[in-house]
Design goal:
The protein is an alpha/beta fold. It is built from 10 helices and 14 strands. The radius of gyration is 22 Å and the shape is elongated. It starts with a strand and ends with a helix.
Length: 320
Protein backbone atom coordinates (compact mmCIF):
# COMPACT_ATOMS: atom_id res chain seq x y z
CA UNK A 1 0.00 0.00 0.00
CA UNK A 2 1.26 3.46 -0.91
CA UNK A 3 0.42 6.75 0.75
CA UNK A 4 0.45 9.69 -1.64
CA UNK A 5 0.06 13.44 -1.41
CA UNK A 6 -3.21 14.52 -3.03
CA UNK A 7 -2.47 17.43 -5.36
CA UNK A 8 -4.91 17.02 -8.23
CA UNK A 9 -8.58 17.99 -8.08
CA UNK A 10 -9.61 14.40 -8.85
CA UNK A 11 -7.51 13.20 -5.89
CA UNK A 12 -9.18 15.70 -3.56
CA UNK A 13 -12.55 14.60 -4.93
CA UNK A 14 -11.66 11.01 -4.04
CA UNK A 15 -10.79 12.07 -0.49
CA UNK A 16 -14.17 13.77 -0.25
CA UNK A 17 -15.90 10.61 -1.50
CA UNK A 18 -14.17 8.49 1.14
CA UNK A 19 -15.31 10.89 3.85
CA UNK A 20 -18.90 11.14 2.61
CA UNK A 21 -19.15 7.33 2.43
CA UNK A 22 -18.51 7.25 6.20
CA UNK A 23 -20.89 10.11 6.98
CA UNK A 24 -18.07 12.66 7.27
CA UNK A 25 -17.20 15.89 5.47
CA UNK A 26 -14.12 17.61 4.07
CA UNK A 27 -13.33 20.70 6.18
CA UNK A 28 -12.92 24.00 4.36
CA UNK A 29 -9.58 24.96 5.95
CA UNK A 30 -7.45 22.00 4.82
CA UNK A 31 -3.85 22.61 3.72
CA UNK A 32 -2.63 19.08 2.94
CA UNK A 33 -4.40 15.80 2.09
CA UNK A 34 -2.94 12.30 1.86
CA UNK A 35 -4.45 9.23 0.22
CA UNK A 36 -3.82 5.56 0.99
CA UNK A 37 -3.65 3.66 -2.30
CA UNK A 38 -4.35 -0.06 -2.66
CA UNK A 39 -4.87 -0.19 -6.45
CA UNK A 40 -7.39 2.57 -5.73
CA UNK A 41 -7.79 5.14 -2.93
CA UNK A 42 -8.99 3.37 0.23
CA UNK A 43 -8.17 5.92 2.94
CA UNK A 44 -7.51 9.60 3.49
CA UNK A 45 -6.25 12.03 6.09
CA UNK A 46 -5.68 15.79 6.07
CA UNK A 47 -3.96 18.64 7.87
CA UNK A 48 -5.00 22.17 8.71
CA UNK A 49 -1.85 23.84 9.98
CA UNK A 50 -0.81 21.50 12.84
CA UNK A 51 -4.22 19.87 13.22
CA UNK A 52 -4.80 16.31 11.98
CA UNK A 53 -8.32 15.89 10.64
CA UNK A 54 -10.58 14.25 8.06
CA UNK A 55 -9.42 10.68 8.69
CA UNK A 56 -11.49 8.09 6.83
CA UNK A 57 -10.96 4.53 5.60
CA UNK A 58 -13.17 2.69 3.13
CA UNK A 59 -15.50 0.24 4.92
CA UNK A 60 -14.06 -2.79 3.11
CA UNK A 61 -10.54 -1.94 4.32
CA UNK A 62 -11.24 -1.05 7.94
CA UNK A 63 -9.48 -3.08 10.63
CA UNK A 64 -6.37 -3.53 8.47
CA UNK A 65 -4.21 -0.86 10.15
CA UNK A 66 -4.67 1.71 7.38
CA UNK A 67 -5.82 4.45 9.77
CA UNK A 68 -2.71 3.92 11.89
CA UNK A 69 -0.48 4.13 8.81
CA UNK A 70 -2.18 7.33 7.65
CA UNK A 71 -1.78 9.04 11.03
CA UNK A 72 1.84 7.88 11.25
CA UNK A 73 2.56 9.24 7.77
CA UNK A 74 0.96 12.60 8.46
CA UNK A 75 2.97 12.96 11.70
CA UNK A 76 6.11 12.14 9.69
CA UNK A 77 5.11 14.86 7.24
CA UNK A 78 4.68 17.39 10.07
CA UNK A 79 8.14 16.65 11.46
CA UNK A 80 9.64 17.03 7.97
CA UNK A 81 8.21 20.57 7.95
CA UNK A 82 9.66 21.37 11.39
CA UNK A 83 6.31 21.11 13.21
CA UNK A 84 7.02 19.62 16.65
CA UNK A 85 3.57 19.88 18.22
CA UNK A 86 0.22 18.89 16.77
CA UNK A 87 -3.42 18.16 17.59
CA UNK A 88 -6.13 15.75 16.52
CA UNK A 89 -9.84 15.47 17.28
CA UNK A 90 -11.45 12.07 17.05
CA UNK A 91 -14.55 10.12 17.91
CA UNK A 92 -14.38 6.92 19.96
CA UNK A 93 -13.83 4.66 16.93
CA UNK A 94 -10.34 6.09 16.28
CA UNK A 95 -9.35 6.70 19.91
CA UNK A 96 -6.87 3.80 20.03
CA UNK A 97 -5.31 4.82 16.69
CA UNK A 98 -4.11 8.13 18.08
CA UNK A 99 -3.22 6.79 21.51
CA UNK A 100 -1.29 3.98 19.85
CA UNK A 101 0.98 6.56 18.24
CA UNK A 102 1.84 8.05 21.61
CA UNK A 103 -0.52 11.01 21.42
CA UNK A 104 -1.89 12.31 24.74
CA UNK A 105 -5.56 12.82 25.56
CA UNK A 106 -6.20 16.46 26.50
CA UNK A 107 -9.94 16.31 27.13
CA UNK A 108 -12.93 14.19 26.13
CA UNK A 109 -16.34 15.83 25.92
CA UNK A 110 -19.56 14.25 24.64
CA UNK A 111 -17.63 11.38 23.03
CA UNK A 112 -15.14 13.65 21.23
CA UNK A 113 -11.47 13.54 22.27
CA UNK A 114 -8.82 16.18 21.67
CA UNK A 115 -5.38 14.61 21.43
CA UNK A 116 -2.01 16.30 21.21
CA UNK A 117 1.39 14.97 20.24
CA UNK A 118 4.95 16.13 19.82
CA UNK A 119 7.69 17.47 22.06
CA UNK A 120 5.50 18.93 24.84
CA UNK A 121 2.02 18.72 26.32
CA UNK A 122 -0.41 21.15 27.90
CA UNK A 123 0.57 20.40 31.50
CA UNK A 124 4.32 20.90 31.00
CA UNK A 125 3.68 23.91 28.77
CA UNK A 126 1.48 25.68 31.33
CA UNK A 127 3.89 24.94 34.18
CA UNK A 128 6.64 26.65 32.19
CA UNK A 129 4.20 29.46 31.30
CA UNK A 130 3.43 29.90 35.01
CA UNK A 131 7.11 30.18 35.88
CA UNK A 132 7.92 32.47 32.94
CA UNK A 133 5.21 34.97 33.93
CA UNK A 134 5.69 34.64 37.71
CA UNK A 135 2.11 33.51 38.33
CA UNK A 136 2.37 32.70 42.03
CA UNK A 137 -0.94 34.10 43.35
CA UNK A 138 -4.65 33.37 43.01
CA UNK A 139 -6.23 35.13 40.05
CA UNK A 140 -9.49 36.17 38.49
CA UNK A 141 -9.31 35.83 34.70
CA UNK A 142 -10.75 37.28 31.53
CA UNK A 143 -10.35 35.87 28.02
CA UNK A 144 -10.82 38.44 25.28
CA UNK A 145 -10.31 38.62 21.52
CA UNK A 146 -10.27 42.47 21.49
CA UNK A 147 -11.01 42.85 17.80
CA UNK A 148 -10.52 45.73 18.56
CA UNK A 149 -10.47 46.67 22.25
CA UNK A 150 -13.41 48.89 23.26
CA UNK A 151 -14.43 50.87 26.32
CA UNK A 152 -16.75 47.96 27.05
CA UNK A 153 -13.79 45.62 27.32
CA UNK A 154 -11.92 48.11 29.49
CA UNK A 155 -14.94 48.53 31.76
CA UNK A 156 -15.07 44.78 32.36
CA UNK A 157 -11.32 44.57 33.01
CA UNK A 158 -11.42 47.50 35.43
CA UNK A 159 -14.34 45.93 37.30
CA UNK A 160 -12.40 42.67 37.70
CA UNK A 161 -9.34 44.63 38.83
CA UNK A 162 -11.38 46.53 41.42
CA UNK A 163 -13.00 43.39 42.83
CA UNK A 164 -9.92 41.13 42.93
CA UNK A 165 -6.37 41.31 44.22
CA UNK A 166 -4.87 39.80 41.06
CA UNK A 167 -6.22 39.51 37.51
CA UNK A 168 -5.03 37.86 34.31
CA UNK A 169 -6.26 39.16 30.97
CA UNK A 170 -5.69 36.53 28.29
CA UNK A 171 -5.64 38.03 24.79
CA UNK A 172 -6.67 35.43 22.22
CA UNK A 173 -3.51 34.57 20.35
CA UNK A 174 -5.08 32.92 17.34
CA UNK A 175 -4.71 35.15 14.28
CA UNK A 176 -8.17 34.71 12.78
CA UNK A 177 -9.35 38.25 13.54
CA UNK A 178 -9.40 41.39 11.41
CA UNK A 179 -6.66 42.84 13.58
CA UNK A 180 -3.50 40.76 14.11
CA UNK A 181 -2.58 39.42 17.53
CA UNK A 182 0.49 41.62 17.93
CA UNK A 183 -1.64 44.75 17.48
CA UNK A 184 -4.44 43.53 19.78
CA UNK A 185 -1.87 42.54 22.43
CA UNK A 186 -0.05 45.88 22.24
CA UNK A 187 -3.30 47.80 22.63
CA UNK A 188 -4.34 45.71 25.62
CA UNK A 189 -1.04 46.24 27.42
CA UNK A 190 -1.13 50.01 26.80
CA UNK A 191 -4.81 50.35 27.77
CA UNK A 192 -4.27 48.43 31.02
CA UNK A 193 -1.02 50.07 32.08
CA UNK A 194 -2.83 51.94 34.88
CA UNK A 195 -4.10 48.67 36.37
CA UNK A 196 -1.15 47.46 38.42
CA UNK A 197 -2.85 44.22 39.48
CA UNK A 198 -3.67 43.12 35.91
CA UNK A 199 -1.29 40.89 33.97
CA UNK A 200 -1.88 40.97 30.20
CA UNK A 201 -0.81 37.66 28.69
CA UNK A 202 -1.16 35.74 25.40
CA UNK A 203 -3.83 33.04 25.51
CA UNK A 204 -1.52 30.32 24.06
CA UNK A 205 -2.61 27.95 21.30
CA UNK A 206 -4.69 25.95 23.76
CA UNK A 207 -7.35 28.59 24.41
CA UNK A 208 -10.27 29.48 22.10
CA UNK A 209 -8.79 28.01 18.96
CA UNK A 210 -11.55 27.53 16.42
CA UNK A 211 -8.85 26.60 13.93
CA UNK A 212 -7.96 23.64 16.10
CA UNK A 213 -11.57 22.52 16.41
CA UNK A 214 -12.54 19.98 13.73
CA UNK A 215 -16.11 19.51 12.59
CA UNK A 216 -15.77 16.90 9.82
CA UNK A 217 -17.30 14.14 11.97
CA UNK A 218 -20.31 16.13 13.21
CA UNK A 219 -23.49 15.69 11.18
CA UNK A 220 -25.66 18.06 13.22
CA UNK A 221 -24.21 21.49 12.50
CA UNK A 222 -26.36 23.02 15.25
CA UNK A 223 -24.29 21.43 17.99
CA UNK A 224 -20.87 22.50 16.69
CA UNK A 225 -20.72 25.81 18.58
CA UNK A 226 -21.94 24.25 21.82
CA UNK A 227 -19.47 21.36 21.56
CA UNK A 228 -16.59 23.70 20.82
CA UNK A 229 -17.53 25.82 23.85
CA UNK A 230 -17.68 22.75 26.09
CA UNK A 231 -14.26 21.53 24.94
CA UNK A 232 -12.62 24.93 25.22
CA UNK A 233 -14.04 25.59 28.67
CA UNK A 234 -13.09 22.09 29.84
CA UNK A 235 -9.49 22.87 28.84
CA UNK A 236 -9.70 26.16 30.74
CA UNK A 237 -11.01 24.66 33.99
CA UNK A 238 -9.01 21.41 33.88
CA UNK A 239 -5.65 22.96 33.06
CA UNK A 240 -5.49 26.77 33.08
CA UNK A 241 -7.46 27.23 36.29
CA UNK A 242 -5.76 24.44 38.22
CA UNK A 243 -2.19 25.07 37.09
CA UNK A 244 -2.24 28.88 37.04
CA UNK A 245 -4.32 29.40 40.20
CA UNK A 246 -7.40 30.90 38.54
CA UNK A 247 -10.41 30.86 40.84
CA UNK A 248 -13.02 32.80 38.86
CA UNK A 249 -13.67 34.15 35.38
CA UNK A 250 -15.39 37.35 34.26
CA UNK A 251 -17.58 37.58 31.15
CA UNK A 252 -19.85 40.25 29.71
CA UNK A 253 -23.42 39.84 28.57
CA UNK A 254 -23.77 39.21 24.83
CA UNK A 255 -26.83 40.73 23.12
CA UNK A 256 -25.58 40.38 19.53
CA UNK A 257 -23.49 37.28 18.82
CA UNK A 258 -25.43 34.00 19.07
CA UNK A 259 -22.22 31.94 19.22
CA UNK A 260 -20.74 33.97 22.09
CA UNK A 261 -24.06 33.92 23.92
CA UNK A 262 -24.15 30.12 23.66
CA UNK A 263 -20.56 29.99 24.91
CA UNK A 264 -21.58 32.11 27.92
CA UNK A 265 -24.44 29.69 28.64
CA UNK A 266 -22.00 26.76 28.76
CA UNK A 267 -19.73 28.60 31.20
CA UNK A 268 -22.58 29.81 33.41
CA UNK A 269 -23.98 26.29 33.56
CA UNK A 270 -20.71 24.96 35.04
CA UNK A 271 -19.64 24.68 38.68
CA UNK A 272 -16.70 27.05 38.09
CA UNK A 273 -17.21 30.52 39.59
CA UNK A 274 -18.33 32.91 36.87
CA UNK A 275 -19.04 36.63 37.15
CA UNK A 276 -21.46 37.93 34.53
CA UNK A 277 -21.30 41.70 34.00
CA UNK A 278 -23.88 43.76 32.12
CA UNK A 279 -22.38 45.16 28.93
CA UNK A 280 -21.44 48.86 29.02
CA UNK A 281 -23.52 51.20 26.84
CA UNK A 282 -22.91 54.56 25.20
CA UNK A 283 -25.58 56.76 23.60
CA UNK A 284 -28.10 53.99 24.33
CA UNK A 285 -26.02 51.50 22.34
CA UNK A 286 -24.28 48.44 23.72
CA UNK A 287 -20.58 48.91 23.04
CA UNK A 288 -19.18 46.08 20.92
CA UNK A 289 -16.16 45.42 18.73
CA UNK A 290 -18.50 44.82 15.77
CA UNK A 291 -20.01 48.30 16.23
CA UNK A 292 -16.53 49.82 16.29
CA UNK A 293 -15.57 47.98 13.10
CA UNK A 294 -18.73 49.25 11.39
CA UNK A 295 -17.94 52.83 12.42
CA UNK A 296 -14.37 52.46 11.17
CA UNK A 297 -15.69 51.68 7.70
CA UNK A 298 -17.44 55.05 7.66
CA UNK A 299 -14.88 57.25 9.39
CA UNK A 300 -12.27 56.17 11.93
CA UNK A 301 -12.87 59.37 13.92
CA UNK A 302 -16.33 58.03 14.82
CA UNK A 303 -14.83 55.31 17.03
CA UNK A 304 -13.02 57.68 19.38
CA UNK A 305 -15.81 57.84 21.98
CA UNK A 306 -16.19 54.03 21.99
CA UNK A 307 -12.58 52.94 22.50
CA UNK A 308 -9.65 53.59 24.86
CA UNK A 309 -7.01 56.08 23.72
CA UNK A 310 -4.60 53.20 23.15
CA UNK A 311 -6.99 51.61 20.65
CA UNK A 312 -7.60 54.82 18.75
CA UNK A 313 -3.92 55.73 18.55
CA UNK A 314 -2.77 52.30 17.44
CA UNK A 315 -5.55 51.87 14.88
CA UNK A 316 -4.71 55.23 13.33
CA UNK A 317 -1.11 54.06 12.96
CA UNK A 318 -2.23 50.63 11.72
CA UNK A 319 -4.26 52.13 8.85
CA UNK A 320 -1.45 54.34 7.60
Amino acid sequence: MNIELAVLDKQIDKAKELLVANGLSYDSDIDVTLLAIEEEAVGTISLSSNVIKCLSVSEDFQGMGIALKLVSKVVEYLFSKGVIHYFAYTKANNFEVFRGLGMTEVVTVDGITLFEGGFYNISTYLKEFKSEHSLDQEYAALVMNLNPMTNGHLYLIEKAAKENKNVILFVVEEDKSIFPFDLRYTIAKEACVHLENVKVLPSTEYMISKATFSTYFIKDQKIISELFAKIDFEIFTKYFAKILGITKRYIGTEPYCVVTSAYNDVMLDSSFEMVLVERKTHNDKSISASLVRELMEKDIKLIKEYVPDATYKNLIDFRR
